[in-house]
Amino acid sequence: MQLARDMRRNMAQGNMMLGTFVVELRTPAVARILQQHGFHFMLVDTEHGCFDPDVVAQHIQAGKRWGVCPLVRVPGPDRTEIKRVLDAGAEGVMVPMCQTLEEVGQAVESSKYPPLGLRGAHFTRPHTEFANPADMGEYMAAANEALLTIIQIETLPAAEKVEEIAALPGVDMLYMGPGDLSIAMGIPGQIAHREVMEVVQRMGEACRRHGKLCGCHFADPAVLPELKRLGVQFAGYGAVIRMLQSGVQSMAASAHHALQGV
């Protein structure tokens, strides 16, 4: 959990953590490339990605190897999926599409050890490097403190409950999903719309009041200063697959341009 601890410390010092989502791409080289370009975290996406558990585990271990904090966006608050990725070494989980406080509570129960939650204990797994902790209680308390349980705010019911969600023990971060929220608001794709940004502002204020972290997705870096002003400390930049598409587009255009007139 050292990478999650390092990010927490950096955010407490006023630094914004920058990361992105990993979907479709299966090579563990992704983590190395992100590390080479200054990304702090990677979110392996099993909500929208067709990854089998072995590929997820490989991404997690690659993130640890290269110092890019490996987090996983799971499909929902289901205990089975959350347990699997945490035991594989993920340093946090992001839970999407939460609409009720009961669903948020289930995400906490599934990701935190007792007394905060009901996560089962199996210590000869990758998350402990296959070594039993000397003191089980001390290990579980430290894991609860470091691990990031992230709740996405991307539905109207969740947007209306940011204060209550931020107040729940065991929730570490609220993370705005502006794409889905803009759809729910009837302004699809307008992720910098005033109404969306108002939710970001309320979320940031609620996180400050309750000592929680505040995160947000973005597609255009020009919005980052405004997000930081609103309290965002953790920012997810698109997805690696889109970066690949952008790079291919740019390099292909350069090659075709060079061939013009030859």
What is the architecture at the second tier of CATH?
A: Alpha-Beta Barrel
Ends distance: 56 Å
Mean pLDDT: 93
Percent range of helical residues: 40-55%
Strand order of the largest sheet: 1-2-3-4-5-6-7-8
Low-confidence stretches: none
Portion in beta strands = 15-25%
Structural class: alpha/beta
Largest sheet: 8 strands, parallel, barrel
CATH superfamily: Phosphoenolpyruvate-binding domains
Q: How many runs of DSSP E, i.e. beta strands? A: 8
What is the count of structural domains? 1
Cα-based radius of gyration, to the nearest Å: 19 Å
- What gross morphology would you assign? globular
Number of helices: 12
- CATH fold name: TIM Barrel
What is the CATH class name?
Alpha Beta
Order of helices and strands: HEHEHEHEHHEHHEHHEHEH
In words, what does this structure look like?
The protein is globular, with a radius of gyration of 19 Å. It has a single domain (2-247), classed as TIM Barrel, CATH 3.20.20. It is an alpha/beta fold and 262 residues long. The protein has an eight-stranded parallel β-barrel, surrounded by nine helices. The chain has helices at 2-12, 29-36, 53-66, 79-87, 101-111, 136-146, 156-160, 162-167, 178-184, 194-210, 224-229, 240-259; strands at residues 17-22, 41-45, 69-73, 92-95, 148-153, 173-176, 213-218, 234-239. It is built from twelve helices and eight strands.
